Design the sequence.
């Protein structure tokens, strides 16, 4: 395993130490060898096409025409449309659907010369926290094959940790980037809602869907976000706030100027496993040693986020899945899996209390109001501190199959991520080390850094202080 | 067994409760939420389409600013209160011509509310004016059903009235005026044949004197002319009154009008608001207008037909001629131009003249018509010498009439005048000639 991060790859390509052709060949070989076990890809693009693009990239490099990602292989979560690629969102409903256009994020990456290797596994429609809702089989955690890599972006996180691609895209609606990033020991960002265009990604819950990225390091992640972020005329919810060169600003923070908030409600032994808690507290201590001020803050009603999320999300899911009628493309609705059906029923129920003339009395409207209230609470908190630090998941990665029979238990995995999703603020997860569970299996631990809207620069700076990317070398995939 | 009803008695016993839903397709450049051309007539099927209006995975709607402004324009023309805060909502139902499984519409915060339109001195209240997207079109041919999505996502304004109409004729006058307003604003072709304007009466029937609204209503679709609207309403009134007479409450449903038979037929049961599961569309941020923005949109509004009518009536133009003019905008535009140019032109007489121009001559320019009007109405004045000479001649040729006049037969002068006219064969001012006759006859 060469385990090169993107920064290393770009340097090697620049210096001519490696060609793009060699690079893609390495990843294709590695996928062939290991992905039988991991199941992180749903579809790979034809090898000839990939090699042709790599050759073209090498030619461009030789002639001095270098873009930000010329010849760099990337993987896309299978809910990203990329022209000509099969795009299933891991559901048999879209088993035969070939995307006729590029998602904006994909177009921006291609525009900088990235080469798409294939489409990565996920919970069908991004519904899930373990990857087990995929109609194409679960993805296995490269740290231990009996364990879940987390979901819904199970494939992208696994592919980064197992060195199958250096960069992958993901979507995060309630934690779908952050949870698998923590469970596999990689870096994952859920940017501010509206920071990256959603156009061309299969919608889950439109009001919280966020497009983000997986990488081995903070620098890599910052570099990619500086490419995909920004206003898009095809997504009315994207922001016109300027996009800074995140990766160039990583060292511009003096830890002594940093005020870190510890969310009291999320450091509760009754909620969080002691190993996770201990690891998180250790990371915070290290940050304090570097000069940061640590302060405990309380956010009123933060624990209500989970219930608000499941009402809001299911309503939007039911609506967004209405278009899959099998008339224009794909298979009919009998092909929906159990989890999608469960959410469609829940959402349909939530939306069935519309009374004409009583606009603000529906369940959905009440939840929207509560959401506004929570946003105010967060604004208050960010007057006191610059960022919040929390664990990502209440537990270490759990065993495949251990929660599939109890959806409520599965939903609880999202407890520490969903609230930030409905508030819309950005969240970055970085690996902070490993821990051993009761069965003596070594597994990674991540930490979640939350900031106000459009504070991605700050999140990356703090992430840089906390990250331990070297833990990926401890993965032993035989 | 069919009961026999006396239609006259039904009309005495029951009254009509009638409101309208009118859809107007806008002729914006692009569709409501994407960049596809909005024009969809005589276009190869499924060529004006893109991921957005086909409802492909990942596609997102971005609202058309022009359509939003035109909706405000129409709402203001219908005297509505304009909502500064507008929002798009999803209305869910499954149908093959609805690619997303929901239609994007303005349910909670429509562009305009609480308006009215005055028809012959009576106010018809407008409940709401809102913007939405059109659906695709189903085509059933050779045993196959096909969908054409060229129309999918074309901007559509819906105008909903209160059930204020007393007669089908009043509804027809309202619809014609509404049609005219839309045409004056230039926001739609409003072609009933093509379906770019669609009329859907909501009809129910109650006992005369009853003030409560009936607890059902029947919506009638497929009406492509004002006269068919009248027919459909008349048919429904009798059909529903007959049911009520038998103690049956008519079904709440959507019916289709068949122009050939003049009858309506049940299509589907009408859904209620709850069934549509309205959801504020999370893909489209709420739209907020400032007072200044709204004022600016309305300030650019052209003169409306009812405003023009008032102006004409104030110019003392006869009402029928004024109505003719407002319904023939091109002629009225020419009329306005000439009236301001030609001093001394009798506006009322010219308007009446124009309203009497036969259909076959309507293609003439208003300038040409003015020339005809002048030729017909303006009279030559003969010079005094000619009058004197001709009067003398006429008198010499008609000694008997001269004699009669002198004996006291006053109306003999009319005969002489007639003879004078026959001689010149032109329209001339009569006054000076009569005076000359009197003068010479009294000699």
Sequence:
């Amino acid at each position: 395993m060469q385990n090169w991060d993107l920064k290393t790859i770009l340097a090697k390509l620049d210096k001519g130490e490696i060609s793009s052709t060699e690079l893609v060949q390495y990843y294709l070989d590695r996928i062939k060898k290991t992905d039988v076990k991991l199941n992180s890809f749903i579809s790979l693009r034809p090898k000839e096409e990939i090699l042709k693009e790599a050759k073209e990239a090498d030619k461009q490099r030789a002639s001095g025409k270098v873009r930000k990602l010329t010849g760099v292989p990337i993987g896309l979560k299978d809910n990203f449309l990329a022209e000509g690629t099969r795009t299933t969102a891991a559901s048999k409903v879209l088993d035969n659907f070939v995307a006729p256009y590029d998602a904006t994020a994909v177009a921006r990456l291609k525009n900088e010369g990235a080469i798409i290797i294939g489409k990565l596994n996920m919970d069908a429609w991004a519904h899930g926290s373990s990857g087990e809702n995929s109609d194409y089989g679960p993805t296995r955690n490269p740290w231990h094959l009996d364990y879940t890599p987390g979901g819904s972006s199970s494939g992208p996180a696994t592919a980064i940790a197992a060195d199958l691609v250096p960069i992958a895209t993901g979507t995060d609606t309630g934690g779908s980037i952050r949870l698998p990033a923590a469970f596999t020991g990689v870096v994952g960002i859920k940017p501010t809602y509206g920071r990256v265009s959603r156009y061309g990604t299969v919608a889950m819950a439109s009001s919280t869907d966020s497009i983000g990225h997986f990488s081995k390091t903070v620098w890599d992640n910052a570099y990619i976000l500086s490419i995909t972020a920004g206003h898009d005329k095809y997504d009315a919810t994207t922001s016109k706030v300027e996009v800074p060169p995140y990766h160039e600003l990583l060292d511009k923070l003096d830890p002594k100027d940093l005020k870190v908030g510890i969310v009291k409600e999320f450091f509760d032994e009754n909620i969080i496993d002691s190993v996770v808690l201990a690891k998180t507290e250790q990371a915070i201590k290290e940050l304090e040693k570097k000069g940061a001020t640590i302060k405990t803050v309380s956010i009123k009603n933060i624990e209500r986020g989970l219930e608000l999320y499941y009402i809001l999300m299911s309503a939007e899911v039911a609506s967004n899945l209405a278009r899959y009628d099998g008339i224009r493309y794909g298979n009919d609705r009998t092909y929906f899996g159990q989890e999608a059906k469960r959410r469609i029923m829940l959402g349909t129920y939530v939306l069935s209390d519309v009374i004409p003339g009583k606009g603000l009395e529906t369940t959905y409207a009440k939840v929207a109001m509560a959401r506004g209230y929570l946003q105010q609470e967060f604004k208050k908190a960010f007057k006191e501190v610059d960022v919040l630090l929390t664990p990502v998941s209440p537990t270490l990665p759990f065993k495949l199959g251990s929660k599939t029979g109890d959806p409520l238990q599965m939903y609880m995995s999202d407890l520490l991520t969903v609230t930030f999703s409905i508030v819309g603020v950005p969240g970055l997860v970085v690996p902070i080390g490993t821990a051993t569970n009761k069965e003596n299996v070594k597994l990674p631990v991540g930490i979640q850094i939350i900031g106000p809207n459009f504070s991605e620069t700050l999140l990356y700076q703090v992430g840089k202080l906390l990250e331990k990317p070297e833990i990926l070398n401890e993965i032993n995939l035989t | 067994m069919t009961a026999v009803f006396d239609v006259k008695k039904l009309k005495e016993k029951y009254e009509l409760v009638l409101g309208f839903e009118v859809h107007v397709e806008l002729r914006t450049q692009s569709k409501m939420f994407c960049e596809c051309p909005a024009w969809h007539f005589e276009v190869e099927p499924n060529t004006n389409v893109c991921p957005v209006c086909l409802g492909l995975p990942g596609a997102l709607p971005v609202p058309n600013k022009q359509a939003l402004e035109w909706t405000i324009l129409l709402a203001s023309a219908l005297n509505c209160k304009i909502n500064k805060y507008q929002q798009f909502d999803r209305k869910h139902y499954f149908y093959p011509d609805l690619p997303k499984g929901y239609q994007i519409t303005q349910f909670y915060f429509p562009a305009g509310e609480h308006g009215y339109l005055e028809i012959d001195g009576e106010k018809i209240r407008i409940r709401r004016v809102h913007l939405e997207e059109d659906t695709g079109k189903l085509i059933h041919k050779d045993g196959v059903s096909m969908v054409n999505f060229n129309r999918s996502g074309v901007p559509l304004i819906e105008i909903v009235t209160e059930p204020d109409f007393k007669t089908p004729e009043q509804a027809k006058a309202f619809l014609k005026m509404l049609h005219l307003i839309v045409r004056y604003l230039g926001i739609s072709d409003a072609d009933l044949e093509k379906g770019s304007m669609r009329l859907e009466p909501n009809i129910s029937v109650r006992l005369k004197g009853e003030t409560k609204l009936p607890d059902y209503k029947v919506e009638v679709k497929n009406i492509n002319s004002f006269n068919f609207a009248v027919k459909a309403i008349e048919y429904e009134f009798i059909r529903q009154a007959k049911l009520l007479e038998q103690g049956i409450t008519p079904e709440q449903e959507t019916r289709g009008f068949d122009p050939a038979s003049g009858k309506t037929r049940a299509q589907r049961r009408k859904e209620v608001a709850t069934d549509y599961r309205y959801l504020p569309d999370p893909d489209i941020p709420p739209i907020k207008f400032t007072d200044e923005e709204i004022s600016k949109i309305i300030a650019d509004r052209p003169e409306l037909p009812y405003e023009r009518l008032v102006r004409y009536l104030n110019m003392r133009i006869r009402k029928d001629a004024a109505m003719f003019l407002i319904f023939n905008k091109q002629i009225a535009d020419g009329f306005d131009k000439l009236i301001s140019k030609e001093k001394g032109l009798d506006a009322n007489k010219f308007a009446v003249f124009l309203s009497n121009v036969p259909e076959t001559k309507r293609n003439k320019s208003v300038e040409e018509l003015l020339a005809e009007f002048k030729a017909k109405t303006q009279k030559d004045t003969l010079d005094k010498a000619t009058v004197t000479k001709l009067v003398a001649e006429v008198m010499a040729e008609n000694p008997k009439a001269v004699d009669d006049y002198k004996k006291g037969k006053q109306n003999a002068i009319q005969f002489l005048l007639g003879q004078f006219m026959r001689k010149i064969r032109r329209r001339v001012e009569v006054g000076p000639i009569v005076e000359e006759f009197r003068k010479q006859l009294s000699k």
Remarks:
- The mean pLDDT of chain B is 92.
- The CA atoms of residues 223 and 229 of chain B lie 6 Å apart.
